[in-house]
């Protein structure tokens, strides 16, 4: 049986993988409270050439 913390980490990692496939320039921030990822923030920069 997988504990809740491990399940939370696996879900967060899957979300980060998906975001990494869509961001060209930017950052991903994980917000953690009590050892649980509670929020994922994505900042993307659009570069005009």
Automatic annotation (TrEMBL):
Domain of life: Bacteria
Pfam families named in the record: DUF2292
Official protein name in the record: YezD family protein
């Amino acid at each position: 049986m997988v504990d809740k913390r491990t399940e939370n980490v696996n879900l967060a990692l899957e979300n980060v993988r998906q975001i990494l496939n869509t961001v060209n320039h930017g950052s991903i921030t994980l917000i953690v409270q009590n050892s649980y990822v509670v929020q994922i923030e994505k900042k993307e920069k659009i570069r005009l050439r």
